[in-house]
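ingest -> validate -> predict -> emit
validate: passed (alphabet ok, no gaps, 290 aa)
predict: started
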Amino acid sequence: MARTSWSSPAHEVLRAAPGFDLAGHHRRATPGWERGKKAAVARLNDRMGQMSELQERLYADGRSGGSRSILLVLQGMDTAGKGGIVRHVIGAVDPQGVMLRSFGVPTPEELSHHYLWRIRKALPRPGYIGVFDRSHYEDVLVVRVAELVSPDVWGARYDEINTFEAKVAASGTSIVKVMLAVSATEQAARLRERLERPDKHWKYNPGDIDARQEWHQYVEAYQEVLDRTSTEVAPWYVVPADRKWYARLAVSELVTRALKDLDLAWPAADFDVPTELARLKASRPCPPPS
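emit:
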């Protein structure tokens, strides 16, 4: 076995199986990876090259009339590392083939529509990797904990989300849902760093402390999300996020696998290659005007 290989595939060891206990989940663990940080960095660098080629193939397929796309959904408590995943994992591929959307507090226009309205508008087009930094799951997480709507309203949304995701998957979009699980201790350390370093003040939000006071309520809300919306077509993967290097490696594995599973070939030329080579050989640039 290569020194940079997993002892168990990431998509198997990280999937939230029935009975998964989020409260007891070890946030500094490295499930399936026993080689340490140095080997993880080597593996990640290798994955970046593979992801880049596979993403280009997906983009070419979309430009040639294909219908496939990837949607990466990133959820997690504040400081869990969603932005780092976008920069260090998705940032390795050609940005022209990426559709990134961050979902914050809904605008007045968005609030005037069904909560999935803004989600539908942001779905990736064929050939693209779509990335949701937060997502429609805020409407069964934040709205639940903050009591923005009644329990009967958010309680009906789990089945609605499952139906919505099944339709998205049936349309040709492979969904990869990642819950980045950071510990309360590590979160405190990351928030402290943001406060102590002027170059990180822009990342700090006083509201993060308010949410931290409701840690256990959020754990309960996330647990129900896992219990009720991890489906065959859109399973949840819970990634321990206290070690940033592991979280980035794990997500790169999940995205690369999703791209590989598309099994896309390079689009065939819609022109005669020998003819075009002959035309190229015979062509001469026009001389500059006199």
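The chain has one domain: 10-282.
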